Amino acid sequence: MLTRDAPAKINLALHVTGRRPDGYHLLESLVVFTELGDRVSAGAAEDDSFALEGPEAGTLAAEDSQGNLVVRARDALRKAAQRSGHAAPPVAITLDKRLPVASGIGGGSADAAATLTLLSDLWGYHPSAQELAEIGLSLGADVPMCLAGTPLVARGIGEALEPVEFGFALDMVLVNPRIGVSTPTVFKALARRDNAPLPPVEGLEDRARFLGWLETVRNDLEAPARQIAPAIGDCLSALSDTGALLARMSGSGASCFGIHADADAAAEAARRLRQAYPGWFVAATRTRSAPGRQVRQAS
Ligand SMILES: C[C@@](CO)(OP(=O)(O)O)[C@H](O)COP(=O)(O)OP(=O)(O)OC[C@H]1O[C@@H](n2ccc(N)nc2=O)[C@H](O)[C@@H]1O
Ligand SMILES: Nc1ncnc2c1ncn2[C@@H]1O[C@H](COP(=O)(O)OP(=O)(O)O)[C@@H](O)[C@H]1O
């Protein structure tokens, strides 16, 4: 049995700069990944199976498992393997779901990316990074960045990736008001799609300078998402009230992050938020600098 982490994706900044003729939006986004994430495990089996567990499995358990991004990733990789003459025998897969669903932190995309690399190892089928990214992109615009799993600037519709190297980690608190927000609905509600591009990232070696730079950029999806789900505004205020140096929405929402001075400040803010908002998802975590590719042998 192999297990792989599927870290949450945080859009520290997201500028919408245009729209393609097929309706997909052009983005420029600074993305990081966190210690917090889902976990995907898989092993050889007589027949294919898919099981869900974990604190956030509920919503997905009610959906058709054939539509789950883990199953779709398995099927897409198997098709590619078989096309090039590789065997892709049956697998038993378990998804340990810890990230809230449809919440702007890319849980489904992270699960798909983890499944692709995990099964690639299990089957001994190793397409090039470019081929794997193409399979990923066919599953969702965020999957290639989740395959990279390292801090980066994403452009295009999210598939053109430029790694960036941080000299420090960011301690943060993630909150979600438990309102699922539909990504296409948020994109549709944008007032304008020709916003200024993301300026070059500054302060990658100096946290205070970086936070100064981060103040100057935005998430263009925040305003339309707040119109659809006003509780996002409550999350942002609550994060600021509990001492976040900067609070912003991730992706198309409704999850928001607050950046804190250190891990103790983040843990204390999370404790206060859990107490004040027992219905919310609240988690203290920190960014990772290396890809979420750790493979563990599970018993
Ligand atoms: C907004 C972002 C920012 O990272 O994150 P999330 O809120 O999903 O976490 C992503 O662009 C979401 O990527 P992902 O969730 O993989 O999107 P997809 O499944 O490919 O697309 C869902 C829908 O979102 C819209 N979409 C997505 C990406 C993009 N660049 N332009 C779009 O307009 C389209 O309406 C598309 O039909
Ligand atoms: N493994 C999965 N985890 C989360 N959502 C999934 C998964 N598989 C399919 N989905 C579907 O994808 C949609 C978007 O989910 P998710 O990736 O969590 O959104 P976001 O990228 O906004 O955080 C959900 O509404 C859900 O129906």
Automatic annotation (TrEMBL):
EC number from the UniProt entry: 2.7.1.148
Gene3D superfamilies per record: 3.30.230.10, GHMP kinase, C-terminal domain
GO biological process, one term: isopentenyl diphosphate biosynthetic process, methylerythritol 4-phosphate pathway
Positions of ATP binding: 100-110
Record GO terms (molecular function): 4-(cytidine 5'-diphospho)-2-C-methyl-D-erythritol kinase activity; ATP binding
Occurrences of domain GHMP kinase C-terminal (ranges): 219-278
Classification via Pfam families: GHMP_kinases_C, GHMP_kinases_N
Catalytic activity entry: 4-CDP-2-C-methyl-D-erythritol + ATP = 4-CDP-2-C-methyl-D-erythritol 2-phosphate + ADP + H(+)
Active site: 9, 142
UniProt entry tagged with the keyword Protein biosynthesis: no
Keyword Repressor: no
The protein's annotated pathway: Isoprenoid biosynthesis; isopentenyl diphosphate biosynthesis via DXP pathway; isopentenyl diphosphate from 1-deoxy-D-xylulose 5-phosphate: step 3/6
Alphabetical keyword list: ATP-binding, Isoprene biosynthesis, Kinase, Nucleotide-binding, Transferase
GHMP kinase N-terminal domain: residues covered: 68-149
NCBIfam families cross-referenced by the UniProt entry: ispE, PRK14608.1
Role, per record: Catalyzes the phosphorylation of the position 2 hydroxy group of 4-diphosphocytidyl-2C-methyl-D-erythritol.
Family named by the database record: Belongs to the GHMP kinase family. IspE subfamily.
Protein name as it appears in the record: 4-diphosphocytidyl-2-C-methyl-D-erythritol kinase
Organism (species): Hoeflea olei
Lineage: Bacteria, Pseudomonadati, Pseudomonadota, Alphaproteobacteria, Hyphomicrobiales
